[in-house]
Every structure is written in C-alpha cells, then in structure tokens.
Amino acid sequence: MQRISGLKFQPGDVRATVLEAERLIRKAGFQCPDPAQRFYSRLADKAETDFEADAETWPATDRSAEERERGYAEASRRLNRKFDGITGDLFLVTEMVESPIEAMFGAWVVLFGNDGYNDIEFSFGPESRFDPEWGTNFTPQVTVAEYRADFLFKVCLKGSFRMLAVECDGHDYHERTADQAARDRSRDRRLLTNGIHVLRFTGREIVRDLEACMDDLSDALSRLAEELLVEAGIAKRRPQRWIQENVDLAGPPPRKRPT
Predict the structure, then answer these.
(1) Boundaries of domain holding 45
(2) What angle do the packed helices 100-112 and 210-231 form, to 10 degrees?
C-alpha cells in the first residue's frame, strides 16, 4: 500500500478492526448474521481492500505537486475519520437494529455507504444538531410519520435537507400475507406524503448482493443531493426528479361491491 503522510492505519489494520468489532458485537449478544455465512470475515476482507485502494489511487498523480499535497492531506483526513469510526459505528448500528438482515445492511453502509458525493456517516438521530454542512447521515430505527423506519438517511446542504427511508423486508423468508403487503403500501404512502421517499430491499437481495443494494441506495441519495444543489443555486440544470417506482401512490384497487 502506498503510504500517505498522516495515515493512521497500516496494511491489515482495517481487517483486524472489523473482526474486533465482530468479537465485541457477538460478546454483547446483538442481532448478528449467521456465523456460517462468514459475513464479517467477508466484510473485513472487502474493507481492507477498499481502504488500501483509496490510499493508493487518490489523488491523481497527474496533478501539480501543490494539488497532490492538498489531496494527500484530504485523503488522510477522510480515511482516518472512517477508520476511527469502524469499531464504534459497527457496534452501535448492530445494537440499534432489530434483525440480522438489518445488521448486514447497516454494517455495509458504515463501511461503504456513499451518497454520490460524500461518505455516509452514522448518526444518533435525525435531529438538526447532527446535520453536516454538506453530506448524508443515517440512523437505524427512527420513528417518523407514526412509523418506525429500519433506516433513515438525511441528505443535508447548508440547513436544507431531504430524507430517504430504507426498509429491509424479510418477507421472502416467510409467508407475506395480503395484510402485510397492504400495511407496507400504507406505510410507504404515509412516508411519501410527509416528504420522505422509501426504498425497499428484500432479505434475499441483501444476502445475495449487498453491493447492488448499495449502488441503488447511492443512486437514490445522489438524486436527492442533486435536488439540494439545484435548490441552493450550485447546480444550474435541474435534474429529473427521482420518483419512487415501487410505491403505488394510488393505493390498492377498490374492492368490488357484492352483488
């Protein structure tokens, strides 16, 4: 790994830190993925690879010496901040969630979540005192519009914000009844009418391809961030507004009256 001045972690440190977080999480008895899935081991391997790749490739070598120096300083600050938060953020996220599926999703966001512009940061709540000047926070298990969202993401820019709720559905691991489906649709409509978009992932999607889930999450958040940039006059051209495709705004079809 190419050395960046001021970088705290050495090769192998990131992997060891993730596995230490796993040890603390399991010792505390929190909701965890099945050990047979080797989730944390795979998570640790990917985190190590990604952190080292960031350290090696950023900033671009075709910049001037002054630009490279500023770039290295920014890289070290960003990577050190993320490295310092691994153990605590993984522990807190796993403590706050309600299922192993949510624990997997939350851990992936902690290490790899990005809104298209900034790394996503863990937050204790959506209150304004936690808002960054520019960036995205996320909090597990937040009550909003009378419903409890599995995760709430808040994209912020200079006091303005957009919110996205993410639901991790386990219906594909047990029977999903018509009543459950109706409750989900009602919940999504209520959130949307309160200005909160909803993104749903099934348990099977999370287990099989978390990277694809993160890509969808990043795309949704980046579109909300673009709205804020346009609103602030930073972006000149208004992007096409993102509309939640899997929320039926019209609701279920009316029931036929008995004849």
Answers:
(1) 8-96
(2) 60
Give the H/E segment covering residue 72.
helix 65-96
Q: Please indicate, yes or no, whether residues 126 and 167 belong to a single structural domain of this protein.
A: yes
Is residue 189 one of the residues assigned to a domain? yes
**Looking at 42, 62, 96, which one is the last position of a domain?**
96
| Predicted confidence (pLDDT) per residue in 228-243, tens digit | 999 998 886 544 444 3
Domain for residue 33, yes or no?
yes
Interatomic CA distance for residues 51 and 111, integer angstroms = 9
CA 235 to chain CA centroid, Å, is 24
DSSP 88-157: HHHHHHHHH-SSHHHHHHHHHHHHH-B-SSSB-EE-S-SSGGG--SEEEEEEEEEEETTEEEEEEEEEEE
What is the distance between the alpha carbons of residues 50 and 86, in angstroms, rounded to a whole number? 14
> Could you give the number of structural domains in the chain?
2
**Residue pLDDT, tens place only, 147-202:** 889 999 999 999 999 999 999 987 554 445 667 766 777 777 777 888 889 999 99
Residue 129: phi, psi to the nearest 5?
Answer: -65, -15
